[in-house]
Amino acid sequence: MSKRKNYLDSIYRNPLPINLTALNLKNLVFGFDIHQDQILIRYQDFIFKALDENSIKKLWFNGFFGKGQLSRSEPTFKERTKRRILPIKDFEKLSSEEITKLRREERKKFKQERLTLEKQEILLKSNKNFEELQKIEFLKHELNSKQKISNKKSLKELFDEQIIKNGKDFNINELRKEDLLLVKKDDEGNMDIENIEYLQLMPVEAFFLRFLNLYIDNIDDDYNDHEITMFPLRKLFYTCISIDHLQPDNRFIISYIVYHHYRSLGWCVKSGIKFSTDFILYKKGPPFQHARYAVTIVPNYENDDENMENPSATDKNNWIWFSSLNRVVSGVKKNLIFCYVDIPKLDIFMDKMREIDELDDYYDEGDKFKELFELYKIYEIGIKRWLPTKNRD
Amino acid sequence: MTNIQLKPLTKQVKTNLEYYNLWSDLKVYNFDNDSIQLLNGKPLEKLQPSESISNDKTRSEQEQQGNDREWIFPIGMDEKLTMSQTDFVFDCIRLVENERPKRIIAGMVNNDGTIVYYFIHDGIVRPRKS
């Protein structure tokens, strides 16, 4: 296990895509030389994406930014697809998606076998054939014990079984029409797969990286390598908030504040959509261990009447919602964190926004956005259900 | 059907179905002056049959009869979906299939690219064995 940890530590060395050895003090003070270590992010179809392999690698290996559009987390589409449709079988590089699939197929087989035995059981019971019934019950017991974790087959065994099962010769004509479109030949005439997967970034991730001056972007649909422009932070901001009527409790702003807060404290922050929360926090990143914390954002207004009136606030004050959220989160062995964000007064917020809007294009907008974000305050509360009969300590 | 302009959401769901969930033969349908865009395609393996309570047919009968294609309705995470809008989607499909489908699948798109699918049945259904 420690060998694996050393390996992971060596490939995921940096928490952010900043190469510290390439910096000198001047760069640290006045910003990074972005051209030295170029990351390209493109905004297209309302999605922030990294398309080229270099940018994808830099973003994923330095802080686990983004998500493979066709993967659960790390972009593994190409390698996975190669193994799925081409006659290439290497066990060592199995992705988490493939492992899940192997385990699910095993479970499905178990259920089928159980069903067959149960059917026989019912039949024998109705025929009062107790001798045979005992045999079936024994088989059932045996089948169930195979399901216990210690008795389960290893992944390698499952993988080899699957290869034998699908062992027929590769025939390109048997591919799905959709898969056939992906097959291409490389320079040496070997078959390869076209990689159609991009790395998708949440708006908060794109804004964070841009706020830190870590990438160059291109907002135009017509991709042109020669005319790469870095569009102003302000433009990116208005792209992210996506509405005209800007309020201090704007969803993007609040999410960004929270995202930035945890990122700056060294957490790897990913979407919490699958656990009905806003974010989940990894201590280091997805390959290392599971995310211990699930963060739910709660806007907090100075005036308590507003807290009751505001639709999102009333949702969050709903006890049924609270109870179900806690169930889901504790069910996946995470700790629930309520992250309260104090919303600034409308007039103070609007003054700051006006300052930002009136900036001339060459001014460093980062400073002003920093001032805007500093109007917000964050504090968090960890929540755990207490059962009087069980939790005595 | 071939020259329909794909909406960004539809495009995301279509690619996800084709290359993540390995569905095949996805077709795009436009309804109501292109305000609604639906996908129709074939899952890798037949999904669980839809059983409505009013229907007395056995499971195996239904499986044989059942349609192996499914209707998908792409929807953004920040969009609201009312009952009458959902009802309208069922009615749109009737224009193609001559009857309301037993169920549709909502494909909800999150801003990190995750897509979550939910069955929406046209009425109440019998629970299934897990």
Describe it.
The complex is a heterodimer of chains A (393) and B (130). Chain A has 393 residues and is an alpha+beta fold. Chain A is globular and about 85 Å long. About 3% of the residues of chain A have low confidence. Chain B has a single domain, classed as Trna Endonuclease, Chain: A, domain 1 (3-Layer(aba) Sandwich), CATH 3.40.1350. Chain B is built from three helices and five strands, in the order αββαβαββ. Chain B has a five-stranded mixed β-sheet. In chain B, strand 1 and strand 2 form a beta hairpin. The longest helix of chain B is centred in the last third of the chain and has 15 residues. Chain B is globular and about 35 Å long. The interface between A and B is medium-sized, with 24 and 18 residues. Chain A: One of its GO terms (molecular function) is nucleic acid binding. Chain A: This is tRNA-splicing endonuclease subunit Sen2. Chain A: Keywords: Lyase, tRNA processing.
Structural class of chain A: alpha+beta
> Could you say what the CATH topology of chain B is called?
Trna Endonuclease, Chain: A, domain 1
Poorly predicted tracts of residues of chain A: 25-36
Distance between the termini of chain B: 38 Å
CATH architecture of the largest domain in chain A: 3-Layer(aba) Sandwich
Total DSSP helices of chain A? 16
- Helix/strand order of chain B: HEEHEHEE
Low-confidence stretches of chain B: none
Overall mean pLDDT of chain A stands at: 82
CA radius of gyration of chain B is 15 Å
Helix content percent band of chain A: 40-55%
How do the strands of the widest beta sheet of chain A line up side by side?
3-6-2-1-7
What's the CATH class label of chain B?
Alpha Beta
Taking strands numbered 1, 2, ... along the chain, how are they ordered across the largest sheet of chain B? 1-2-3-4-5
SSE pattern of chain A, N- to C-terminal: HHEEHEHHHHHEEEHEHHEEEHHHEHHE
- Give the class of chain B from helix and strand content and strand pairing: alpha+beta
**Remind me, CATH topology of the largest domain in chain A?**
Trna Endonuclease, Chain: A, domain 1
Q: Biggest interface, which chains?
A: A-B, 24 and 18 residues
Number of strands of chain A: 12
What number of domains of chain B? 1
GO molecular function (chain B): nucleic acid binding; tRNA-intron lyase activity
GO cellular component, one term (chain B): tRNA-intron endonuclease complex
Biased composition (Basic and acidic residues) (chain B): 54-69
Protein name (chain B): tRNA-splicing endonuclease subunit Sen15 domain-containing protein
